[in-house]
């Protein structure tokens, strides 16, 4: 591949090269446009990548055998010492996150989704009936034999503490109708490691929200619909 020719196919890079060529005292490194950068007491020459070659570079650094689908951080560390172009980190991150093969196999490392949804505390006597073996309770100063109000206050405090403790390490994720998601559905096959098998299927489409933590989803043919908990869903990155 003739890199100098490829660089000149990009109008912005061509304009910079022609401007530099007007000054003969400026050395040209292998007739390529590079940007010099000092990093960790090392002098690096980063190749300026033309716009039409970005995907090719990303493929070689991530999808090819030498890339091995190493994730955002490791792929970025490999690219940033060799190449440069505008918004390079954003392009690397979006490219890695949009890999469907990795999305189906790799587990979700973010916080579990969905907050605790406690029961509504009753406000009226006998709104909810339960049978227990508690008692015999002493009669209060007002002549009451059933300390429902005190029990309600205790239940409210316990419910608030439980919700706060449960939600501490979780996150609230909301999807809208039409959003695409992956559905966690682990595969198990005799003789094969579960880690190497797809953990997610999809993409599925969000139809509607049926409860605070539940969604109705459908596949691309719209012939199958399921109602699943938000904890089993992962956003699909296009």
From TrEMBL:
Gene3D superfamilies: 1.10.340.70. Residues 202-235 form the Integrase p58-like C-terminal domain. Pfam families: Integrase_H2C2 (PF17921), Integrase_p58_C (PF22938). It comes from the Eukaryota. Its EC number is 2.7.7.49. GO terms for molecular function: RNA-directed DNA polymerase activity. It is an enzyme of class 2 (transferase). Residues 49-107 form the Integrase zinc-binding domain. This is RNA-directed DNA polymerase. It comes from Strigamia maritima (European centipede).
